[in-house]
Amino acid sequence: MSIDEQFMLEAIKEAEKAREINEVPIGAVIVLNGQIIARGYNLRETAQKATAHAELLAIEEACEKLGTWRLEDTTLYVTLEPCPMCAGSIVLSRVKRVVYGATDPKGGCCGTLMNLLDDTRFNHQCEVVAGVMGEACGELLSTFFSQLRARKKAEKKLLKEQKKQEEC
């Protein structure tokens, strides 16, 4: 198992924490000199904050721990390709390298829809490694959304049955 796969497993553990509280299962870790210095998982629904993405929470924790906003020698591991907001934060915090699992065809800005991390118009670019444990990361997301759809369908059916009984 490669170093990237080992750290992606840690990001997957973070994603599983999100899944356990019915959040979209996305997890991230930030590594410096072979050590995890920050972790984060999606808390958007729990916190009701649009910015409570795994990457941003991990970036905030890393900055606090290091006492600087410059994360120049770090690697960010994340289970899903970062969105435009997260990609912007990655560039602005000067993360050196980003490793992600599953691609995001609806919002991925590290190579799928565009690559903000490699845009030479910015004063910082990041190395991007895509698809590390992509199948496992993608399966985590597709299982979550499949279960969510089934749960909503069951709730809708139950409400329909309750309404029918009230009419009788």
TrEMBL record:
CDD domains in the cross-refs: nucleoside_deaminase
UniProt xrefs under PANTHER family: CYTOSINE DEAMINASE FAMILY MEMBER, TRNA-SPECIFIC ADENOSINE DEAMINASE
Zinc as UniProt keyword: yes
Cofactor remark from the record: Binds 1 zinc ion per subunit.
CMP/dCMP-type deaminase domain ranges (all copies): 2-120
Cofactor entry: Zn(2+)
InterPro entries linked to this entry: APOBEC/CMP_deaminase_Zn-bd, CMP_dCMP_dom, Cytidine_deaminase-like, MafB19-deam, tRNA_aden_deaminase
Pfam families for the chain: MafB19-deam
Protein name, UniProt field: tRNA-specific adenosine deaminase
Gene: tadA
Source species of the chain: Cytobacillus kochii
Keywords: Hydrolase, Metal-binding, tRNA processing, Zinc
Complex formation: Homodimer.
PROSITE patterns the record matches: CYT_DCMP_DEAMINASES_1, CYT_DCMP_DEAMINASES_2
